[in-house]
Design a protein that fits this description.
The protein has two domains: 92 residues, DNA polymerase, domain 1, CATH 1.10.150; 115 residues, Cytidine Deaminase, domain 2, CATH 3.40.140. The chain contains nine helices and five strands, in the order αααααααββαβαββ. The protein has a five-stranded mixed sheet. Helix 6 packs antiparallel against helix 7. The longest helix is centred in the middle third of the chain and has 20 residues. The radius of gyration is 22 Å and the shape is elongated. The N and C termini lie far apart (52 Å). The relative contact order is 0.09.
Length: 226
Amino acid sequence: MDFASLHSDERPREKLLRFGPESLSVAELLAVILRTGRHGEDVMALSHGLLSRMGGLEGLARATVGELMREKGLKDAKAAALAASLELGKRLAVAGAGEKKEWKNRLLSIALETKYSERETIYALFLDARDGLIDEAELSYGGMAGAYLDLPVFFRRAVRAGAYGVVLVHNHPDGSRLASRDDKRLTEHVRKALGVLGIKLKRHYIAAGGELFPVGAADGSEPYGE
């Protein structure tokens, strides 16, 4: 149906004002942000097309501002408004994970922060004798295939922090919950090396799809836990 032929109450902005934002589809919400279409295409058609080309809402959330601006019909103002709206959504999700001082909540925050990342990153959380979070570090960046952990730098950071315990977490950009052979080998190597330093590796987690899975679960089905 042509956008111009819609009754005023069926148009996205009017529908939002009358029935609330929860009544709108993803494409309609996007249309409210974009406000207008482009030459030969109304705003609803532009929204549907953008979602299709980007791979849905999750694909859109991964897009950079530069990628958005390369879309025909998305100039500076529209691209900026869309990027800002997506970032607000990401930050709200992270804020809901809890206070940063709680290491388990910080883990959940990392899982949400990396949900749409296209690079693998390894993080370490350093804990005191009572499992309080005293420091954290991004230890490496990688690509889709993996990330390299500089072990000497990691161990020095743990000692400097005066850590009694360490939690490792790395994300899988492809969404896989399964630990690779390298993931398991790294976990055991780190566990033994930290033990020599008198530091305990509490757990190593995979962040995938906004959730956490301990390295060592047989089939990747064991959820986040102690």
